[in-house]
């Protein structure tokens, strides 16, 4: 008997199911929206219409479920479409608990859409589990963690939070976009669901929008998510699914190099006189360092840092970079720098002097030289 395959092996063969008709090693993207019925009216190959199911999408969902160690996966047109489907699957009047530091789009989604209709939500400090426990309400049905968090890279102890969620009868979903497998696998730590923006590391080339929900169990709750996917229709299109499979082939090596670059850059920034604070869980003085060491295989490739000075100084540093490109988003092969507060809503708690880096695959010397010259007085 073979051992179960390592994640790196699964990734290297992503999208590689020899085509039955031609023997093509790499499966083609199945762009067809519709599928042939047999003379008796049945669909013997299982596909009838692409909103309902599509072979390329199915290939991606199967692989993502394996990667996270889950029983089922549904992919969507964006990370936010995946988040929407999850919130829609909750019972009316459920309470959702989210971290104070969370991707602002998730808070926006709850605030602008769901609280006006069917749900309530509050926030807590997820780096302190007593604060989470105190915020739980009798109708809390979903605890939403994001670790490392966007943009402050706070770390949540997922095993302890999963235990708490079980005690209070809530589901735990972890937005693991910033630390995909093989770096972090929240279901192994007791989470019920994992959310990914496929737009980031999993597709990995800044040319796909997508989202995924992976469930530990293919239970009735997941079936509701599947029904929302198929019926509401915010599905991932087949070509984006194919591009994501193609990107996944190099995920493990991309992450290895991006994390290695990030470790060097975080250490450089921590020693730089023009920087007053570095948010990166790989630094030994980061408050979440020990938990991150336990629950992650590496510390990821996202770094936020605060420059000595105000927003104007931070914007000036970003304006000077030549290798780092000024843009939002993350997880591509190219390094990005972003003044985060100016893209978030006016009531953001992101420090005005904070710059966020997504570390790419460029040569480390070029990245260091670029930051060094940008931080000069
Ligand atoms: C942590 C996190 N979750 C979810 C999203 C939303 O993903 P998408 O832009 O694919 O809708 C983002 C986007 O930046 C993110 O950073």
From TrEMBL:
The modification N6-(pyridoxal phosphate)lysine is found at residue 200. GO terms for cellular component: cytoplasm. GO terms for molecular function: cystathionine gamma-lyase activity; pyridoxal phosphate binding; transaminase activity. InterPro entries: Cys/Met-Metab_PyrdxlP-dep_enz, Cys_met_metab_PP, PyrdxlP-dep_Trfase, PyrdxlP-dep_Trfase_major, PyrdxlP-dep_Trfase_small. It comes from the Bacteria. Keywords: Aminotransferase, Pyridoxal phosphate, Transferase. It holds the Pfam family Cys_Met_Meta_PP. Coiled coil: none annotated. GO terms for biological process: cysteine biosynthetic process via cystathionine; transsulfuration. Its cofactor is pyridoxal 5'-phosphate. CDD domains: CGS_like (cd00614). Belongs to the trans-sulfuration enzymes family. This is Aminotransferase class I/II-fold pyridoxal phosphate-dependent enzyme. The lineage of its organism: Bacteria, Pseudomonadati, Rhodothermota, Rhodothermia, Rhodothermales.
